[in-house]
Design goal:
Elements: H1 4-14, E1 19-22, H2 27-31, E2 39-41, H3 50-60, E3 66-71, H4 72-76, H5 80-88, E4 93-99, E5 102-103, E6 109-110, H6 119-126, E7 130-134, H7 137-149, E8 154-159, H8 183-197
Parallel strand pairs: 1-2, 1-3, 3-4, 4-8, 7-8
Antiparallel strand pairs: 5-6
């Protein structure tokens, strides 16, 4: 099982101009490694929609890689999105599911099927051609270049230690810059960044 650092630090080190959509338990941890206008926290709206938001961005920016760091509880709430992603053919989308078996920011309640749900098998059944599953940090880091460079849509499940991030707010007291403003204001900032950088 990986620590939060073992999951995020190698990914942040390889990150260039990709859009990164985070949700729930990885929102604050990701911001400890990245402070980019193309980071997006999907954490204070309807739970379970980070993956479909990332898909929409990927379809709108087909030549830019989009990475979604989704939670296992969030993924369970929208399993149909797996089929929709495959049907879309979004070759630029990499969907991570962080498997910690709990709803971390609402108190650590166990997700349905904790310890039994095989997210990689669900992704294969939905039609993903590229599916990865990791429980060891070394194997994960060795595969990251292949994961990020290969054609998608790509699905990655990673077993990660549960943390205790707590409830997320959008206030100036949050350490993460993308949580210090409203969802609408940050969405506008990210849109400007996409337009400024252009579609690579």
């Amino acid at each position: 099982m990986l620590s939060r650092e073992q999951l995020l630090e190698p990914l942040a080190r390889r990150r260039r101009d990709e859009v990164v959509v985070t949700t729930m338990g990885v929102v604050r941890p990701w911001a400890r490694y990245s402070d980019h206008d193309l980071d997006f926290a999907s954490a204070d709206s309807a739970m379970g929609h980070a993956a479909d938001l990332a898909l929409g961005i990927a379809m709108a920016q087909p030549r830019r890689k989009v990475i979604c760091l989704n939670g296992d509880g969030s993924m369970l709430m929208s399993l149909g999105t797996l089929v929709t992603i495959v049907e879309s053919g979004a070759a630029n989308l990499v969907l991570f599911v962080v498997v910690n078996d709990v709803y971390e920011i609402t108190g650590g309640q166990p997700i349905p099927g904790a310890g039994r749900v095989d997210f990689a098998a669900l992704a294969r059944a939905a039609g993903f051609a590229r599916v990865f599953h990791f429980v060891e940090a070394d194997a994960y880091e060795q595969a990251l270049d292949e994961i990020l460079s290969g054609p998608g849509p790509t699905f990655v499940s990673v077993a990660v230690e549960a943390g205790s991030e707590g409830v997320i707010s959008r206030t100036p007291v949050e350490p993460a810059r993308y949580l210090q403003t409203s969802l609408a204001d940050w969405s506008a900032r990210m849109r400007r960044a996409l337009l400024d950088v252009g579609d690579p």
